[in-house]
């Protein structure tokens, strides 16, 4: 299919409207329905959509908005209360799963450094895929939903030191190690800039926009905040979803 964005949107929506209710009817969830529709339409299926780049760009925006909405449900005070499950349960999950997978790879005669990197990499989960079923079942406010979210949030944060440690585990040269640690510093600085800058500026910005008394300007400002935070995180080498989540948390007040 070589049509424009409108045709791609129509085909994708038609596939979702057909696949998602069928999968939910059998208790399989909407995420599997979306995945199945993508496989059928994609270049390895019926090849209805051959150029996946426009679809990937649109899907990234969808993930950004999903994580923004989730961030809106968590005020900074609630997120502070969650620090123990985030670093406790999240750290334990990464450690146990990563060590178990690395041990299996060591039994396959893989080098220890490569086994650790692959094991920890396989311990990560997809935040969007993991949160969507919880949101469908309205389980995020419950205890198991908060625990699952805490683990996924820790995984997003753990990606920063893991990326910095890969050259060290691989015996990289000092110059390459310096570049990696510089990237890690940029990532940490970007998170701090979004959190501190958002706390200082957003309240005044939205107070000014509220005085204008135009709902469309207020909506546009909120979208600008979300996409701006996502873009800034992407420049720092992090995921856009993390930036959108932080923007949602800052706007929750």
Overview of the structural elements:
The longest helix is centred in the last third of the chain and has 39 residues, at 174-212. Helices cover 81% and strands 0% of the residues. The protein is globular and about 65 Å long. With 253 residues, it is an all-alpha fold.
Search tags:
mainly alpha; about 250 residues; single chain; about 80% helix
Count of DSSP-assigned helices:
11
Low-confidence stretches: 172-179
- Count all strands and give the number: 0
Percent of residues in helical segments?
over 70%
Proportion of residues in extended strands: under 5%
Shape: globular
The major β-sheet equals:
none
Radius of gyration: 21 Å
- Structural class from helices and strands? mainly alpha
Distance between the termini: 45 Å
Order of helices and strands: HHHHHHHHHHH
Précis, in short:
The protein is mainly α and 253 residues long.
Topology:
Layout: H1 5-25, H2 30-41, H3 53-72, H4 76-81, H5 83-107, H6 112-122, H7 127-136, H8 143-169, H9 174-212, H10 215-235, H11 240-251
Helix pairs in contact: 1-2, 3-11, 5-6, 5-8, 7-8, 8-9, 9-10, 9-11, 10-11
